[in-house]
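To whoever is on call:

I kicked off a structure prediction for a single chain this morning and the downstream step that reads the tokens threw a length-mismatch warning. I double-checked the sequence; it's 140 residues and nothing unusual in it as far as I can see. Pasting both halves so you can look.
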Amino acid sequence: MKEIHGLVAAVELIPAATYDADNTPAAVDLIGFEAAEIALEIGVGGITFNGTNKIEFKLTHSDDNSTYTAVTADDLVGSPSVGDGGIIKSLVAAHAAATVEQFGYIGGKRFLKLLADFSGTHGTGTPIGAQVIKGRPHHA
């Protein structure tokens, strides 16, 4: 088995916690790396999600860490579709088991942000966490 320790760096997009409202997205800088993988971890839903009471995960990117735009399907691999506003994952039905989903970012911009956008009423929180695994460093 070969190690990849010096070839990747993991950075938090959404700190692991139980949320019942929108997170404040932090910017992740991809400078010095040629690849990025997003790992989105979602625990058992705190509520039964539906079209009104839902969570939408919105990924945006930027060249200057000032003006962010929504990603599109052309910016990701591993995602069957990307909704308006950069929605890479929607929780609109019961989420009875914890999951980890991966999305490969190929958009080419320097900065990423991920928002867990809550709509409706969330009396009980849902465990969420997300990381960017940066790979193919310029200097290993």
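Update from on-call: the warning came from a stale cache, not from the record. Cleared it. Sanity check on the structure: The chain has one domain: 5-137.
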